[in-house]
Design a protein that fits this description.
407 residues; alpha+beta; Outer membrane efflux proteins (OEP); 5-stranded antiparallel sheet; 8 helices; elongated; disordered N terminus
């Protein structure tokens, strides 16, 4: 299969179109990712609009009665205003701030997707190991059957005086050891199931792990989440460096305000109160402000952000290097698994040939039913071993699989 087809398969199995789509994660986990994504979106909007200053509304109401003995207020004053102090040019700072917010948003999405992929990989890994535990249980039961046959044969030989008791004891101990190992495997399966149910709502009996194939190196180093995130963080750091430089350059602001004032006063002449209400006052102001800070820490501030940008640039190369090492490690592991598969197939072929011969000898009366069953069980053990090794291949490919989100 072409690498593009493999990637298409990955995208089909783990669609990144929506956090509500996953066959392997629980609805609680998916909802958590969805809410985190919505939070990220709102924070991004807030960041992209951070250069827009608020419009300030003010209202004041004051009463005064410094000379009135009966406590009644002599003066009532009201005032209200609306004002704006908005930057319209910051030597590119506004442009960089908007682009920085967009870059941070994408980086946040990739980081969130990386977390989801890691959790999905864990769920599938547990599912595969549960399948392997089932295979191990079936294999162990076949070994126990062979051990029981062996014990029965040793018992017959011992009772007929053809075998020493030590061989009989060894056969009994081997059977007990196999039964004890079976209990350990069953307990391990229960622990795997417990871990699986913590992150998935799926019934492990009715959901299958994905079938994966090897991915080409160039796709891993160009389309994986890790490399996309490293590049996006570098882009984010670049805009932040530009923002830092811009805040020490000239800035142009427009200032505008509108004011309203009202006043009522009472004057007392003897026992008579005279009300005075001058006309309300309204006025506005507007203007342009130009400023440029002279900060002794400006160079150090800019250099710190520039170094962070250079560091994230190196991180891209380091990520590519890590992905190449991962690809090489998976390839070597697959080669090792394939070699073990070939060896198991050879052994299974040998048992198949011996089973055929044993069956013919059994029908001729030269072999017992115990011999026939022993060969059948030995052949079936190798067939189960091959199934487990195939799942080992899937576990290795999962290490690459979790690195992708979409084409």
């Amino acid at each position: 299969m072409k690498a593009l087809s493999v990637l298409s398969l990955l995208c089909l199995l783990f669609s990144s179109a929506s956090y509500a789509e996953s066959n392997y994660l629980s609805q609680i986990k998916l909802k958590t990712f969805e809410l985190e994504d919505q939070k990220l979106e709102q924070e991004s909007k807030k960041l992209s609009r951070s250069w827009i200053k608020p419009i300030v509304l003010r209202y004041n109401l004051n009463y005064q009665n410094p000379y009135n003995e009966n406590g009644a207020p002599q003066t009532k004053q009201q005032s209200a205003s609306i004002s704006l102090d908005q930057p319209i040019f910051q030597s590119g700072g506004i442009y960089y701030a908007i682009n920085y917010a967009d870059a941070a948003r994408v980086a946040g999405e990739l980081s969130l997707k990386q977390q989801q992929r890691s959790l999905e990989k864990s769920a599938i890994e547990l599912l595969i190991k549960i399948r392997q535990a089932d295979i191990s249980i079936a294999t162990q039961n076949l070994r126990i059957k062979n051990a029981k046959i062996n014990l029965e044969q040793k018992r017959e030989l011992y009772l007929s005086g053809q075998l020493d008791s030590g061989f009989l004891n060894s056969a009994a101990l081997e059977l007990n050891s196999l039964k004890s190992a079976l209990l350990d495997i069953e307990n391990s399966k229960e622990l795997l199931l417990s871990s699986f149910t913590k992150i998935s709502d799926a019934d492990y009996k009715h959901i299958e792990p994905p079938k994966l194939q090897m991915i080409e190196l160039d796709h891993l180093t160009s389309d994986s989440i890790d490399i996309k995130l490293a590049r996006q963080i570098n882009e984010q750091d670049r805009y932040f460096t530009d923002m830092t430089m811009a805040k020490y350059l000239p800035s142009f602001n427009i200032r505008a305000s509108y004011h309203w004032q009202s006043q009522e006063s009472f004057f007392f002449t003897g026992s008579n109160a005279i009300k005075s209400s001058p006309p309300d006052t309204t006025y506005y102001k507007y203007g342009l402000n130009i400023s440029m800070p002279l900060d002794f820490n400006s160079y150090a501030d800019y250099e710190a952000t520039e170094l962070a940008y250079l560091k994230s640039k190196l991180q891209i190369e380091d990520t590519e290097r890590t992905l190449k090492a991962l690809h090489e490690s998976v390839a070597l592991s697959l080669k090792h698994v394939d070699a073990k598969l070939e060896l198991s197939k050879e052994t299974q072929g040998l048992y198949a040939s011996l089973l055929k011969d044993t069956k013919e000898l059994y029908e001729a009366g030269e072999k017992t039913v115990h011999d026939l069953h022993t060969m059948q069980n030995s052949r079936d053990i190798e067939l189960l071993n091959q199934q487990s090794l195939e799942l080992d291949r899937e576990l290795e490919l999962l290490r690459l699989y979790e690195k992708f989100d979409e084409i």
